Amino acid sequence: MKPILVVNSGSSSLKYQLIDMVTEEVLAHGLLERVSDHGVAFAQMLKEIAAGEPRLEGISPVAVGHRVVHGGTAFSQATVVTDQVLTQIHELASLAPLHNPGNLAGIEAAIAAFPDVPHVAVFDTAFHQSLAPASYTYAIDTAVASKHHIRRYGFHGTSHSYVASRTAEFLGRDLADLKIIVLHLGNGASACAIDCGRSIETSMGMTPLEGLVMGSRSGDLDPAILMYLSRVADYTPDQLDLLLNRESGLVGLTGLNDMRDVSLAATAGDPRSTLALEIYAHRIRHYVGAYFALLGGLDAVVFTAGVGENSADVRARVIVPLAHLGLTLDESRNAVSGGGARKISGEGAAVSVLVIPTNEELEIARQLLDVLEA
Ligand code: ADP
Fold first, then answer.
1. Fewer CB atoms inside 10 Å of the end CB: C or N, the chain?
2. Which residues are annotated as site, described as Transition state stabilizer (predicted)?
3. 124 catalytic per annotation
């Protein structure tokens, strides 16, 4: 057995998986919520693991992998945690105040619990460090941008990278020969254009707010709306943050933030939900077209994460109107729910349309081993 513990520690939650990397079998997994002390949560996690299965009592991971949201420009790959790395993650907290402090608290608790094994940080931003300057630079005063580290970083990189590799495997092709658009549609959502296994463009930006319509985030909008609201309605920065990150997207449009509820309401004839679904799919099609152009060709469009893996309705709303781009949908394949990686495009289509379940924990464990065994 080669047990690797993968930890996704938020400000008030702790998600974990213990994976045997000899077989890639998940030995234990869980989610602790309302966490106020990460050290206490770690002790609770160890109790849960031992109680869940007798054979795991006393088991100790040979290494711990940590999800870290923001790696800035400092981290373009998974990195063994040292004191210096901890300091850097701490410094990056100004770019990701909602995420990095919770990630850091989890790493510190894990080091206290497992002081003798290597800890590896895997960054959501790392996969997108391959973006060219023309993709990551915002067209604002370069002095202001540089002083405040303003640029596109992109997120969901662990998922995009995993799904791209699985796509190559599924198609029996070499990743280096493929042009892929991955649509990660969960509560948060982002699109990524991947050429030869490298991210060349992605829809999330300096923060996870930009791009697609999400559960409670607006995605793209005219930034002048923020100045306008602050002038005409005295919105403060915190209120704008709340409006755009928590009260927009599906929840802002419909009052519902779960795609299942929005779909049900639309089917029942609610016009707001129908419009929300149209906006959601329209925005995705906008990005698919743009990324097709940037990639200069296209082998596969891949749906992943909660909505992408489960909503046949959303997939149909995205793909059916794109027949002119060579995208087709086999209705009966699209309607099948559950299962692993599958093709949903029609027979002989120029571009494969796939559903590939993401697995960020496994990808973190694999990247950890790559780093430790390099
Ligand atoms: P997170 O970004 O929190 O990791 P997930 O990838 O788990 O999110 O996606 C969560 C979202 O997936 C939920 O908000 C829900 O709207 C959506 N979802 C899950 N199952 C279905 C389904 N059967 N049909 C439509 N949407 C679904």
1. C
2. 156, 217
3. yes
Tell me if 214 CB under 6 Å of ligand 1. Answer: no
Q: Is 188 in the pocket of ligand 1 (CB under 6 A)?
A: yes
What distance in Å separates the CA atoms of residue 290 and residue 283, rounded to the nearest whole number? 11
Selecting among 37, 116, 124, 241, the annotated active-site residue is 124
Q: What is the pLDDT of residues 154-202, one digit of tens each?
A: 999 999 999 999 999 999 999 999 999 999 999 999 999 999 999 999 9
Whether 306 lines ligand 1, by a CB cut-off of 6 Å, is yes
Residue from 8, 184, 185, 310 to probe ligand 1 pocket by mutation (most atoms less than 8 Å from CB): 310
Q: Is 107 in the pocket of ligand 1 (CB under 6 A)?
A: no
Alpha helices in 172-216 (DSSP H): none
Quote the pLDDT of residue 55.
75
Q: Would the pTM count as exceeding 0.85?
A: yes
The residues near 314 (Cβ < 8 Å, ≥ 6 apart) are: 185, 259, 263, 277, 280, 281, 307, 308
Amino acid letter for position 276? A
Domain-located, residue 332: yes
- Please check whether residues 206 and 269 belong to one and the same domain: yes
- Verify whether ligand 1 is closer than 6 Å to residue 311 (CB atom): yes
* In the chain, % of residues over pLDDT 70: 100
Q: How many angstroms does the Cα of residue 59 sit away from the middle of ligand 1?
A: 33
Proportion of the chain above pLDDT 90, given as a percent: 90
Q: Which residue has the tokens 């949908």?
A: 329
**pLDDT of 57 strictly over 90:** no
Indicate the residue among 82, 107, 123 that finishes a domain.
Answer: 123
Dist CA 179 CA 242 (whole Å): 36
Q: Is the dihedral of CA 11, 79, 190, 151 positive or negative?
A: positive
Say if residue 116 is in the same domain as residue 203: no
The DSSP symbol for 250 reads H
pLDDT of residue 60: 86
Residues 6+ apart with CB under 8 A from 60: 3, 114, 117
Other Cβ atoms within 10 Å of 169 Cβ, number: 12
- Ligand 1: residue of 311, 361, 363, 364 to mutate (most ligand atoms within 8 A of CB) is 311
